[in-house]
Amino acid sequence: MFQFTVGKAESFRGGAITRMMQKPSILLTTVCRPFGGPGEGDSVGAELFHAQVTRAQGIFSLRQVIRSWGLDYIAENISCPSVVLHYPSEGEFLKEIRSRRYDYIGINFVVATFHKVQRMAELIRKHAPDAEIVLGGYGTVLPDALLAPLSDRVCREEGIGFFKKLLGEEPDYRLRHPYAPIPSPSLYSFRRPTKVAHITSGLGCPNGCDYFFKRRYIPFAETGRELYQTVLQMEQQALEQGDELGGFILIDEDFFLQKKRAAEYLECVRREGRVFPIMGFGSIRALSQFTADEIAEMGFETIWTAFESPTAGYEKMKGREIGTLFSELQSRGVAVLASMIIGFPHQNRNDILRDFELLMSYEPALTQILIYFAFPGTPFYEKAIGKNCTGRSSGGSALPLCAYPKYGSTDTGT
Q: Three-class SS of residue 265?
């Protein structure tokens, strides 16, 4: 469990971020560990690489616990006393809610961890009955009929603005990026001495895929210069805390799509003569706006990109020939992590295998496989409702799954 203090007085104690200012007081938390219990698939957990990307590599799998950085951003940008817990045990969570009076307790969750929210809400109502429960995260796509009995408020918008309105604070668009690093990935249980810092340059994706939520793009860094200065500030904070940074995770659904900002960041790198290792995200369309040399020169060491079936017709897949793009990036030391979606209505088993073999021919360094799923609030959800295709989520709620006649639920793992 992570825990630290934001503000002038900082102290680490076991795993939460505490800010001592004026009341009301806020607790922001992920769901409780452990993971892998009844109803939870292997892909559900606090790790991303081992859960969804490198699990099949056995002892060669990369191990790294990923923070829920959105909670850190909220705590950093509100003025109330706040504590952030990342993956507490139930005992640690109970100890915290009993230790002081909280006015609001926010829980970040996904659909697959809804059952954990049910248990946590029960504990809050019993041990902190005066606290209002605020639910947030991807799990809030679930209907109000499920969430209302467990909560007092549901955040389905940008979290910092939501809490500022809730607390009566003035809007402040000068975003503060929290320094909340995580250890670098370990291998063979060998923990590298470096840490990885996190920067969000923007929220929301403008590509308009039917399986994704329609959200306007919110820039957290308006210009490339602002982004570069944030990197320098993170480096200074790491030095002050005695941390050695091994790189940065840049959160932006399609960073290179904002061409002017990315180009300005490159100019800063060239002008200052300093480059920082980055893992980031970019579509084929956006990556095609830059040469492989330029992307490597910016400092990108890993690019996470989408690979949908060529017959699916997504605009973001249009650009340079994929095999050439991957080859040029990797020849310059930029690893490609390709995320493939399977289960489109037009696909059968042979189509999926053919697309997979095509992706393998491009030789990405890493691969993630996801299922075409109809989350509430997406265009695909509306299509699935129209076809009356429903299944059950881990929380027992009815959700569209579209079990196509071309292959059954056992083929996709639903």
A: helix
